[in-house]
Amino acid sequence: MYMNKTKYNSTLIWSLVGLFAGGFPSIFWFSILMAMLITGDLEVPVLVISLFFFVLSVVFIVLGIRGLMKIFAVNKCLQAFENDPDGFIQMDKILNGKKPGCGRERRILDAVEKGFFERVTYDRKYRMFELSDRIQNKNDYLNRFIGINCPNCGNALKVKVGMTVFCNKCGQEVLG
Fold it and tell me: What is the rounded distance in angstroms from the CA atom of residue 2 to the CA atom of residue 76?
C-alpha cells in the first residue's frame, strides 16, 4: 500500500541479476586462478584477464547483496506502516533496538530518498514517518499539509508544513 512497486520490483530484479551474474562467473574465474597458481602455469595475459573478471564478478555479488539488504529494510518499514494505527511511526520502532545511524537506518533513508515509498513523509528532525492517508480528521490533514510541486520534476506532493520530504519520482529534497 505504501510501496512504490516500480522501484521495489526493479531493485529486487537487479539485485537477483547481480547475484547470479556475479555468482557463477566468480566460481569459474576463481577456479581458473587457483588452477594457474597450483600448476605454476602463470601466463600473465590469462592471469590479468582472469583476475579482472573475478573482481568484476565479486562487485556484481556485492551490489546484489546491497540491493537485497535495501529490500529487506523497505519490507521492515512496510510492515511497521501496515500495523500502525495512528499514522506516526518513529524510526526507532522500525530499527527495533538498533542504534541510530546503523546500516539499516542508512538503507531506509536511502530508500526514502530514492522514492521507494508512496503517501509517506519522513521528518528527519523528529526521526518520524507520517502516513498521509491515516490522518483521522480531514481538517487536521488540510491544516498540516500543503500541496506543492517538486521544483525538479514538477511532481505533485503533499508536504507537512515545515517538513522536508523527498519527491517520490526524482528524489529531490523539498521543504514544505
Answer: 12
Query: What would the grid cell of residue 67 be?
Result: 540491493
pLDDT attached to residue 142: 47
N residues, the chain: 176
pLDDT tens, residue by residue, 84-116: 877 788 888 888 878 888 999 999 999 999 999
Q: Are 12 and 70 in contact (CB under 8 A)?
A: no
Amino acid occupying residue 38: I
Cβ atoms of 120 and 130 within 8 Å: the answer is yes
Q: Give the Cα separation of 147 and 122 in Å (integer).
A: 16
C-alpha cell at 112: 526514502
**Domain residue limits, the chain:** 5-134
pLDDT tens digits for range 10-56: 999 999 999 998 988 888 888 888 888 888 887 888 788 888 888 99
Q: Which of 87, 66, 57, 55 is nearest to 15 (CA)?
A: 66
Q: How far is it, in rounded angstroms, from Cα 176 to Cα 145?
A: 8
Tell whether the model's pLDDT for residue 160 goes beyond 60.
yes
DSSP, collapsed to helix, strand or coil, labels residue 159 as: strand
Strand partners, 7: none
CA 108 to chain centre: 6
**How far apart (Å, rounded) are the C-alpha atoms in residues 140 and 136?**
8
